[in-house]
Design goal:
By secondary structure, the chain is an alpha+beta fold. The protein has 6 helices and 4 strands; from the N terminus they run H-H-H-E-E-H-E-E-H-H. It has a 4-stranded antiparallel sheet with strand order 1-2-4-3, with helices on one face. It is globular and about 55 Å long.
């Protein structure tokens, strides 16, 4: 593993965590645009609206507890003032075959896409259909 660091020019391409942390915000926005329709379709029966919004990803703790990177998130907002539906959707996402973890903040359930690899995008979109069932 340490041999990877001998070639710093290719390190981001070969080290998954670094690759995800260095993704350009534009790439993440494009991914959000691709995933927005399947997410909207999956939640069409729920009393919510779904949109793509700018986000800030917290990248660590310890020595860098407040460092953030620009990102994009799928944001699910309740159609009424009652936000209990967000907890129901959050539980349904955690129950998927590949659990999806989001966070509830500012009245929305946010799914930050920074660490969703493009290679995993199709699996994510496919399993969203289970939310509609």
């Amino acid at each position: 593993m340490l041999r990877l660091y001998r070639d710093p020019d290719r390190l981001a391409a070969r080290l998954t965590a670094l690759h995800l942390l260095t993704r350009p915000a534009g790439e993440i926005q494009a991914q959000a645009a691709r995933l927005l329709p399947p997410m909207q379709q999956a939640l069409a029966g729920w009393p919510v609206s779904v949109g793509a919004e700018p986000a800030l990803s917290q990248i660590g703790s310890g020595s860098l507890p407040i460092e953030r990177l620009h990102s994009c998130a799928l944001a699910v907002r309740p159609a009424t003032r009652k936000s209990g539906v967000l907890h129901d959707i959050e539980a349904a996402l955690r129950g998927l075959p590949v659990p999806v973890i989001g966070r509830i903040a500012d009245g929305a359930l946010r799914l930050d896409l920074r660490c969703l690899a493009v290679a995993d995008e199709a699996c994510f979109a496919t399993q969203l259909a289970r939310l509609a069932a």
